[in-house]
Structures are given as C-alpha cells and as structure tokens.
Amino acid sequence: MQPLVSIIVPVYKVAAYLPRCLDSLLAQDHRPLELIVVDDGSPDECPDIIDAYARRHDIIRPVHQANAGVGAARNAGIALARGDYIGFVDSDDFVEPEYVSRLVHKLRKHDADIAICNFSFDFPNGARVPFPLLTPRRRLTGERAAQYSMDLLTVPTFAWNKLYRRELWDGIEFPSMYYEDVATAARVLERADAVTVTHRALYHYCLRGTGITGNFNDKNVQDYLRAARLIRDFLWSGGLWQTWEGPYRRFLRHVWTQLNISVIMTTSLPLSQRRAALRRIREGINELRQPPTHLELEAVHKGAVT
C-alpha cells in the first residue's frame, strides 16, 4: 500500500508557467496523490486555470484566498493536507515524473522522516545547471541535517526539494516574509529522526530574470536578517545554542556575504541607498552575534513570530 502524498502549490501571477507546473505534477508515477493548489489572490488568469484543471482532474484541490504571501499560501495547504507526507512545489517550477516516487522510495528504504533531492537551475535560454549539493552522506540524523542547513550548500533551506512526514509540521508555520523557508528549515529538520538524500536532480528551479533575486531591495535585507534572528532565537529557546553555535556563526557569514554581494550588484539602487543598506547589514549581523533579549525569547515561547 503506497502512502498518500500531498503536494502544496502556492500560486500568484504565474499564468504563463502554471500549466507546465501542474502538468508535471499530474504526470507523477506515484499514486495516491493530492495536489493542493492555493490561489493567493492572483489578479491574472491563474484562478481560472486552477479551476479548469480541478474540473478535469479530481486529485486537484483548489483553494482561493486573499493575497497574503507565499508563506500564508503554504500554511493554508498544510492545514488542508491529508497525506502521510507533504511537499511543496512553486508554481513557476516543474518536477520530473518520478519526483514523488523516488522520494517516497528513499523515505521507506531508510525509514526516514524527510527525503531531500537535488535540483537544477533552469535558465530562459534552455541552459540547465545542477545545484552543487554537498551532502556528505545519504542518510543522516535530523539534528545533523539541521546543522548542515546552516552551510546552505550542504542541505539547502528551500522548502520545495523535500518530502516531509506530515506530523513534522504540527505547530510550525511559515512567517509572512521573504526567506520564509530559511526561517523554518532548521526547526523542521531538527524534529526528524532521520533524513535521507538523493543527489539526483528531480526538481527544476526555473529562473525568469524577475522576482526577489532580480529586484533586491531593503525588504530583502530586513527579512533575511529577520530569518537569521528567528533561527538564533529558536536555538536559544530550545537549549541548542551550545552545540549549534559554530554552525550558526558560519551561517551568519554566509548571510553577510550574500547580502553584501546582492546590495553591491543591485545597480538600480542609488549609491546612497546601497551604502545605507550595507551599514544596516553590518549592524544587523553584529546584533545577531549576541544572545537574544528576554523579550525575544519570551515571544518564541509564546509562539509569536516577530
């Protein structure tokens, strides 16, 4: 008996790419499967496309909600998911036909709670470049996987190249911000008893020359620093800081490098704004090297995301 898998697809202004995404999911060689497609108040033809697909395919469960961001759309899907395992696919990306079945096989073979696959960067000109996944072993503990996620290239923090045991998400939600998956990855990974990895690229991350990476601004800076703060506060509140301090400080170096390069290369920002952003990055990283305040830890214990 194969397990039911729920794939959650948040949708917003991707009418040109949505059919390719849905077709790739309908072509999965795994059943039973449910596709929870969440229209996040998209103003284009996406709602009509979703409903048309749902009328033709009973495994699609359409959801329509007011625009609240990708995190809220994923949260809505998690709340509705009936599967033994859940996964996420972005609506402008697509997956290989064996994406689900291979990850389910890995989960069962290694008695794991999370299965991770590699992915490729797909460029508009047709070029395809595999991600340089550096995971050193094919099965590891959840705690080790969570620590590796601090290195970014070893266990990427993306939500979408993984299948998760449904229960791992109990009590965890994506915050409403950019880098929402960075903020949640370590928390979910740390809950797992075992994580299994395949280096086969089963997911296609499609670059369009737009989106967050193409329009870097001050909100990107603030939200990346906020994600790093949420991770720090989680480590302190959970009594994990002593064993995680080294990985977390390496993570901060990655954050500092990525943000500085992104700001410097964003020529659409006036020089004065770039200088101000670089100053905020430096100040933010210095603050994150310090223990959280009592109020910050209290907010974590109450379940608040600030």
From TrEMBL:
Coiled coil: none annotated. The keyword Transferase applies. Residues 6-167 form the Glycosyltransferase 2-like domain. InterPro entries: Glyco_trans_2-like, Nucleotide-diphossugar_trans. Keywords: Glycosyltransferase, Transferase. The keyword Glycosyltransferase applies. One of its GO terms (molecular function) is glycosyltransferase activity. SUPFAM superfamilies: Nucleotide-diphospho-sugar transferases (SSF53448). Pfam families: Glycos_transf_2. PANTHER family: GLYCOSYLTRANSFERASE, GLYCOSYLTRANSFERASE EPSH-RELATED. This is Glycosyltransferase.
